[in-house]
Amino acid sequence: MKTKNLQPASVNPLSLVVLLLLPAAGHAEVINILGTDYYVATLGLLVYQIIYLPVALVLVVLLYVLLLRHIRWRWLKWGMLPFLYAGLAALPYWDTYQIGQQAKVLCEEQAGLYVYRTVEADGFIGYTSIKKWSQYGFKYVEGYGFHVTMVDGKPHKERVGVENYRSRYSVITKQHEPLGESRFSRHRSWTRDRQTDEVLGEVIAFTVPPGKWDSLILGASGFAFNAWVCGREVPLDQEQIYGKEFWSDDVVKATIIAKSDSMEAVK
Questions:
Q1: What is the dihedral of CA 136, 138, 142, 143, to 10 degrees?
Q2: What is the rounded average pLDDT for all residues in the chain?
Q3: Is the dihedral of CA 59, 64, 66, 67 positive or negative?
């Protein structure tokens, strides 16, 4: 009986690297260094640590062998090495620092829930889910050309047309509004008095974009990525009212209060 010598299967180094990095795909984190938040993708950070930093070290060594070793002053050529390596190490995340600075301004100074005035009303424009809003005391909601009420415990839709909406107040939501050339985007929901165009309140959040290094790694990997969003965090003393995050529903709850009589009135 003939037997074959079994050879160990060859391992593709690239496949091994992919398997090691796969658990990090799609994940992100915020690292605070000296008061600045760095928004980094976990996959990009691992590639940076495992591949980029060793390559940068090799480049510094080659630079020394080819150029710096010919410098006459030993203190100068050896003193330049750590600065060269530090510069190469910081290069991929330089724009991440700038993104962190801009995010600090947007997230701390503009994001969050703002209430300018509260009103009382039987209903409002912007939703059709009356079953949910009736639990808050509203008699109707309007949206998509419908006037929706509860009849015998069930939602009842009446087509009325946008021009025939009854409510004085509406909620409007705009997602992913670009902010100039910064690659940041704004998510804003606000309640409005249709007669005066006054904004009653608004909830604002921002999507923080990844830096160029993370964008390059994520684009090459093909993995989906959930970007950072700031401004939805609810203060601890308000979590019982709004939960863990602010959403468009919350600006309605904060500014439009259901009333028992049939006439809409402003507080």
A1: 0
A2: 80
A3: positive
Cα–Cα distance, 77 to 75 (Å, whole number): 6
Residue type, 77: K
pLDDT at 191 over 90: yes
Can you read off the two tokens belonging to residue 165? 């909406």
Q: Given the DSSP bridges, would you call strands 256-258 and 119-121 parallel, antiparallel or unpaired?
A: parallel
- Name the token pair of 78: 């050896």
Q: What angle do CA 54, 59, 63 make, to 5 degrees?
A: 150
Distances (CA, A) of 190 to 108, 123, 171: 19, 16, 6
Which residues touch 166 (CB under 8 Å, ≥6 apart)? 123, 140, 142, 147, 160
**pLDDT of residue 3 exceeding 50:** no
Q: What gap in Å lies between CA 49 and CA 55, rounded to an integer?
A: 10
